[in-house]
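Section 4.2 – Deliverable D4.2 (structural model, holo form)

The reporting period included a commitment to supply a predicted holo structure for the target in complex with adenosine-5'-triphosphate. Inputs used:
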Amino acid sequence: MIILEAQHLSHSYRIGGRDIRILDDVSLAVEAGEFLVIQGASGSGKSTLLSLLSGLDKPGSGRIRIDGRDITDLGEDDLAPIRNTAIGFVFQAYHLVPALTAIENVMFPAELRGDPAAAEKAAALVNRVGLADRRDNFPHQLSGGEKQRIAICRALINAPAVIFADEPTGNLDSASGQAILTLLREFQRERGATLVLVTHNPEIAATADRVLKLVDGRLRHELPHAA
Ligand SMILES: Nc1ncnc2c1ncn2[C@@H]1O[C@H](COP(=O)(O)OP(=O)(O)OP(=O)(O)O)[C@@H](O)[C@H]1O
Ligand SMILES: [Mg+2]
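Output (structure tokens):
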């Protein structure tokens, strides 16, 4: 079953008074449960592609479907609940809410949709990532790796069908980066979710079902291989 589909996506940004085409007729179909890695040079458009696929931004042209639903023309009111439940997003820079504690950050998306088990689910996730004793810390009281583990819990609490992760280990040392990627993979496998991961890590790319590389605004197939 195709859970995520992009058809003929093109996207330009206006840079220095000129329209620069970042994505050029990109089409993509991702199976439910698939682990897809996206690679590409800095500035090639990986983050742009993820923000379009996840409905954070609108494409210049083309269409996007998630879980059978065409989200391309949806307004914010219709999109917000889809982003909250069908999609989980993990960013390089964590994006935790600074005024909320770790456990409150995790709980938030579940509370937003009125889940009566929000607190219970959040506690289970935070235990699972080994941060039970940090649950009442604020983000500024957590290390980078701890922040990212909390961000993963937050992305997973509503059991999304698709998890997007944009260089989630980019700010971490290699040991905590590896731990984060292992965690994401474990959760993805357990839940049968789809994982779309932007990473430069060749060991992780070697374990992907498929590796695509953005070059000159287009997606190329790469063979997954170890470094
Ligand atoms: N909001 C914006 N306005 C104008 N230009 C932008 C905007 N966002 C991104 N760009 C430009 O689009 C190009 C692609 O950016 P993007 O962030 O998608 O690249 P990336 O592949 O994620 O790079 P990196 O590996 O450095 O994260 C870059 O040249 C960038 O400068
Ligand atoms: Mg990026």
